[in-house]
Amino acid sequence: MYSYYLDFLKSLKKFVADIFPDIKHYQFNYGSYTLLHHKLYKEHVQEYPMCIINLSDITNEDNQAFKRYIGNKHSIQTAQLLASNHTKKESVLMDFKWMILQFQIKINFNSTADLLNYHNVLQSYFPKNFMFYSYTYNVLIEISKYTNNWEPTDTTEGLVYRAINQKVETFAQYGIEPIFRITNITQTKDVQTDISLDISLEVKIKVPNKIGNQSFDERIVNGIEIVIATTDEFNSLPILIDMDDDVISDRLSRLKRRYILNEKMIVNNQLILNYEEYNLLLGYPIGIYIVDDSTSVDAKISFTEIPLLTDDYTNADKKEFVIDLADDLSYFQFSDLSNMQLMVF
What are the pLDDT digits (tens) for 171-215? Predict the structure, then answer.
């Protein structure tokens, strides 16, 4: 299950927050699904200025994705390698399509001066009716069903792991660089003191069309299930905007494995990991990377480095690690925008 529209809505906060860091309250609307700022940050007080982002329309850039889907034919231009197993000489590919998203962004104020200032800044930062890039973000997509015959000792590339209740799931990471176009900017101030800046935004992003193993004739088989909302809080995946490219791309081949972590794994400023393959990590140096909001310009970041993971950190009976974190995380506001990873070097 993968919700790429919800991931993009999360990332869109960075587009606004980079130019307007004073905005405290965000609301993202997609159809009947609303992702409120107080759900993200557990805050219930609305402060001005506040931002409401509505996804109003989704269209295909062309009709070729449908033809590729039903004909099971794909091209190099629309296929992306997600993960490889060099031992078994297998790979997982994704066919993607380009989609056009229409947004209406409303920023509400309690003073006309703020309205004019924000309008001036917006006109200075971005061109109108021109396409431009603003940021790049990385997302994770589950590929467990396509790697279930891959062994932990295989030489692999591009995998990210998550361990839940003795079950290990595999994910692939791929980057998205949205293309933006501001089509209209309107200042509103009516007799009922509704003061707002309304922005019409068009965004072009690539989204998965099909995903599967590469077969002998280089066709992609099987499809993926797309969901917009999930009730399982643990299933939510982080969007990765803040991480250093040298760590993500791992050009020096230093990174052996990566694990997705969750806030529930932290108890009394200790990270408790409980999974069956902990022996694979013994004898390796690790780093624990935590950021409270990957879209924020002043994100709170913690990095705990363990020079070598030994049996001193384990409870063999329970098969768990207990690691003291270097930084006090009591001030962190963990949310759907949090990013927590364990890196094995």
Answer: 988 888 899 999 998 888 765 667 889 999 999 998 887 777 765
Q: Which amino acid is at 195?
A: I
pLDDT tens-place string over residues 308-336: 877 777 776 666 778 888 777 877 778 77
Q: Which residue has the tokens 């990991």?
A: 273
Count of C-beta atoms within a 10 Å radius of residue 163: 19
- Partners of 199 in the beta sheet? 105, 185
Number of domains in the chain: 1
Given a contact cutoff of 8 angstroms between Cβ atoms, the answer to whether 329 and 290 are in contact is yes
Q: What separation in angstroms does the CA of 252 have from each of 231, 247, 248, 286, 345?
A: 39, 9, 11, 16, 11
Domain span holding position 297? 246-345
| Helix or strand (DSSP H, E) at 305 | strand 301-306
Asked, for residue 176, whether it belongs to a domain, the answer is no
Instruction: Tell me the torsion sign for CA atoms 4, 9, 14, 19.
Output: positive
